[in-house]
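User: I'm new to structure prediction. If I give you an amino acid sequence, what do you actually give back? Let's try with this one:
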Amino acid sequence: MLAAAVGLLTAALPLFAGEPAGLPPAPGTYRLDRIQRVPQAIVLEGSLIPRLLSHYIGGKITLFGFFYSYCADPEGCPLAWDAFEKVRAEIMADAKLHGRIRLVFMSLDPAHDSPDAMKGFAQRYEAGGRAVPWHFLTTYSGFFLKPLLRGMGEEVSARPGEDGVVLNHMLKVFLIDKEGWVREIYSSQTLDPVLVLGDIRTLLLEETALSP
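Assistant: Good question. You get back a string of structure tokens that encode the predicted 3D arrangement of the chain. For your 212 residues, that looks like this:
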């Protein structure tokens, strides 16, 4: 009886001491390593005027993902889109985070996803854009895209589908600090908005600790 009682008490301890089991660690209680630098690239936003990718990376914490507009794989772009929208909603609800984080989607199919098409997506999120901007980027062609994919470790292959070409790629979302370092890479198994927001807050606490 005593052993059974001790076992029950031990099992109940997480409910009374510390954080409940299964919750992610509190922001600032862990460190995110510097994984890699984001390579430079030529990108387009809403027009054919070239811009450097660094324009959309430096100075703020950036959540960056690859996508293409007609992707229908539920474990691919739609999953990333849903996570980005949830993260954005949480940032919008916290005034202390306004202006400190940006979201970026980069097209994997510049032949199909023109600057005008990307502009249409961006217009959906113009409201609240000053608090948390969401940029939709493409580029001129695969010639300009391939070095970025290679530098970010993203592999893409094409196969015929019922309604055209289907692009196969592993879902990767990158959390990038304001110095342009990738600090975390999320997959379809780890792209949890709660985890992402915890990592964002961890980087913001790190910035505060390093500021003079």
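You can read the tokens as a compact description of the fold. Here is one thing that stands out. Residues 28 and 206 are 7 Å apart (CA to CA).
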